[in-house]
Amino acid sequence: MVLPPEALQYLEYVRVQKRLAARTLTLYTLDLEKLVQFAAGANRPLLELQNAHIRGFVARMHGAGRSGRGIALILSGWRGFFAWAARQGLVPNNPVQDVRAPRAPKPLPKALGVDDAVRLAEHEQPGADPWLEARDAAIVELLYGCGLRVGELVGLDVIATSAAHAQGRGWLDLQAGEAHVFGKGAKRRSVPMGAAAMQAVRSWLEVRAQPFGGAQSGGPSARLDSALFVGRRGARLTPQSVWLRLRERSQLAGLTTPVHPHMLRHSFASHLLQSSGNLRAVQELLGHANITTTQVYTRLDFQHLAQVYDAAHPRARRKSED
């Protein structure tokens, strides 16, 4: 394509004055060629394009499937050209100045299906060390059964203490069946523990003080941290350790998707919301300050929404015909 003189002058300017790399100069050229094509389609000279034309070009690119990031890069090239043209007195203003690319949709974290989540929670590895099995099973139950963040999980202590409270650590109250955690912004919340989580935690506490490998190892019991979840040497588990153990456990359970802690939290929210439809309750359990965060975080399929509507809305059900 033959570019108009002003476009060629601009490309020469950025090549010489800004010393752009050859690849970048090629991209600038392609962006200007696209702009010239759009201008020709609108029967407008390049330097007579207005803000409305640019917005129309953006809409066309978006409608054709170009990503928001790709459009933003093109707009950046156009904006640079018209800024230069304005400095040269070729245009009265920059028609691209306040035009922004469409926002890319924020992807939601993936959730496990109910069957896969239960399969992971109930997985038992034959021949595995009972100490690790008990600990990892309790980790899965608290992440999926209570919707904890990984930071909240590893911050749990065995019992409540004034030191734990002062340092922003949580604890479990097995008598009340509650997990007390400190979330974002040092906000404390209480989350109910289900029967499966309670049993898993009790099983873990029975072996927690034993040396890793069981009594047969003959080694001295390591000094235990106050943490609920500890590693082989008795120190508090790190979030990275939980990530690695979950990934390995999900593979051993035969899941096709490697599982990470936030996926279990999202699964907790999604499955609970699908069953109850109570968005406000899910917000409280997740510890979200704003319900809009919960609306983005959780996911309902259309079929479930339709079922809720048909069952609950007074205008949804049709009167039976006589």
Short descriptors:
2 domains; mainly alpha; 322 residues; tyrosine-based site-specific recombinase activity; hpI Integrase, Chain A; 14 helices; cytoplasm; DNA-binding; 4 strands; four-stranded mixed β-sheet
Q: Any guess at the CATH architecture of the largest domain?
A: Orthogonal Bundle
Number of helices: 14
> For this structure, what is the CATH homologous superfamily of the largest domain?
Intergrase catalytic core
- What is the residue-averaged pLDDT? 84
- Strand segment tally: 4
Radius of gyration: 29 Å
CATH topology of the largest domain: hpI Integrase, Chain A
Top CATH class of the largest domain: Mainly Alpha
Order of helices and strands: HHHHHHHEHEEEHHHHHH
- How many domains, as an integer? 2
Per-chain topology:
Layout lengths: L4 H12 L5 H20 L9 H13 L4 H20 L26 H8 L8 H17 L3 H5 L1 E2 L4 H5 L3 E4 L4 E5 L5 E5 L2 H14 L30 H14 L8 H16 L2 H8 L4 H7 L4 H11 L10
Overview of this structure, please?
- With 322 residues, the protein is mainly alpha-helical.
- It has 2 domains: 5-87; 114-307, Intergrase catalytic core (hpI Integrase, Chain A), CATH 1.10.443.10.
- The protein is built from 14 helices and 4 strands.
- The longest helix has 20 residues, at 22-41.
- The termini are far apart.
- This is Tyrosine recombinase XerC.
- It is found in: Cytoplasm.
- Pfam families: Phage_int_SAM_1, Phage_integrase.
